Amino acid sequence: MKLCKICHKISATDEDHLDCIQKRSIETESEDFKNGLPEKLNLSNNNHELSVEIRAILEHISKNKNSDE
């Protein structure tokens, strides 16, 4: 028996828990998806082609993000 490197609990096998491995991979994929979203949508180049509602939402989000920092 050894400790899981992710959750630091005892593992019956000599490997990390499968659910811990899957959770870590999902979190990594989630971060990659969030970071790549503006590039996928091409927001930085074509913001004039977006509808008024979406531009308003993006401006609101960016104002909130800047005020939090």
Give a topology summary.
Blueprint: E1 2-3, E2 10-11, H1 18-41, H2 52-68
Antiparallel strand pairs: 1-2
Search tags:
69 residues, mainly alpha, two-stranded antiparallel ribbon, 2 helices, 2 strands, rod-shaped
Strand composition percent? 5-15%
What does the main sheet amount to? Answer: 2 strands, antiparallel
End-to-end Cα distance: 45 Å
By secondary-structure content and strand pairing, the structural class works out as mainly alpha
- Tell me the total number of β-strands: 2
Give the count of helical stretches.
2
Strand order of the largest sheet: 1-2
- What is the mean predicted local confidence, pLDDT? 78
* H-E order: EEHH
Give the CA-based shape.
rod-shaped
Proportion of residues in helical segments: 55-70%
Q: How much is the radius of gyration in Å?
A: 20 Å
Quaternary organization: single chain
Low-confidence regions: none
Could you characterize what this model shows?
The model has no long low-confidence stretch (mean pLDDT 78). Helix content is 59%, strand content 6%. The protein contains two helices and two strands. With 69 residues, it is mainly α. The longest helix has 24 residues, at 18-41. Strands 1-2 form a two-stranded antiparallel sheet.
